[in-house]
Fold this protein.
Amino acid sequence: MITVNHIQEMSELLKILSDQSRLSMLALLREGELCVCDLVELVGLSQPGVSQHLKKMKAVGLVNETRKSQWIYYSLNIDDKPYVKAVLDTIPSLKDKIDSMKNRCC
């Protein structure tokens, strides 16, 4: 049964998805865990810009972060959000873009 709280949560998450940069980052993360510096290169934003987007996505539970040495890696956290997965499934794979990245920083 869908509740008012569920609709409110969906609304907040869909607002996050409405930003092109955040949607691009989520589509990239669908391919696997990435470091902030990888996302900077792939999305073409500054490191502070990418970090702010990731902070917003983490705040609503769309991404997880894992520290490995001095690097922080991000991954998707959408197993309990089928409507987000449905949106991301409509975006073509960006694996080739990741694979063609020249300098993986981490």
About this structure: Residues 62 and 80 are 10 Å apart (CA to CA). The chain has a mean pLDDT of 92.
